[in-house]
Write a structure and sequence with these properties.
CATH architecture of the largest domain: 2-Layer Sandwich
Number of strands: 4
Shape: globular
Largest sheet: 4 strands, antiparallel
Strand content: 25-35%
CATH topology of the largest domain: Alpha-Beta Plaits
Structural class: alpha+beta
Oligomer: single chain
CATH superfamily of the largest domain: Ribosomal protein S6/Translation elongation factor EF1B
Distance between the termini: 106 Å
Strand order of the largest sheet: 2-3-1-4
Order of helices and strands: EHEEHEH
């Protein structure tokens, strides 16, 4: 048995019902070619690395499937390229069978991921709030050191000045 992962990007202007329709079309075509779908879920809308068909964003969909033969894989790839709702796609061969994930488990994982991202953002925010107060402290220490150096220099200069004053008197 061979396992594949297909990641495709759907037009970002589509609402959820239209994305679901595109997913159903892909699932039907996969079944028609004799592949068995293991996972098929939406990753969400994300910013693209570069514009594709004048789109800055895309709705990412991930699908895992398995098959015994590779005969229809080229036809599946051609279907994905010709499908109007799909902006880009990529299918890769997997080394081992992917874990089955249900739709119920998926939002819980996203919430955990989003929470950890929010926590990390909050820690960055709190760190950045404290940084400005720390920086002046560091620079104050540096200025204090430079002041100490300058005060140490000054006493040596002052006696020299005072000696000159004494000689003049």
């Amino acid at each position: 048995m061979r396992y594949y992962e297909s990641l495709y990007i759907v037009n970002p202007n589509y609402e959820q019902s239209k994305i679901d329709q595109a997913m159903k079309t892909v699932s039907d075509k996969v079944s028609e070619y004799g592949f068995n779908v293991i996972n098929h879920f939406v990753w969400g809308k994300k910013r693209l690395a570069y514009n594709i068909q004048e789109h800055k964003y895309g709705s990412y969909v991930l699908m895992h499937f398995e098959t015994n033969s590779v005969e229809n894989l080229e036809q599946f790839e051609r279907f994905m390229v010709l499908e109007k709702s799909i902006v880009r796609n990529q299918t890769v061969l997997l080394d081992e069978k992917p874990e089955k994930k249900s739709e119920k488990e998926r939002p819980a994982e996203e919430e955990k991921t989003n929470r950890s991202k929010d926590d990390s953002k909050e820690s960055v925010r709190s760190t950045s709030k404290h940084k400005p107060t720390e920086e002046p402290t560091d620079s104050e220490e540096e200025s204090t050191d430079s002041e100490e150096e300058s005060t140490e220099d000054k006493p040596t200069e002052e006696p020299t000045d005072s000696e000159e004053d004494k000689e003049e008197k």
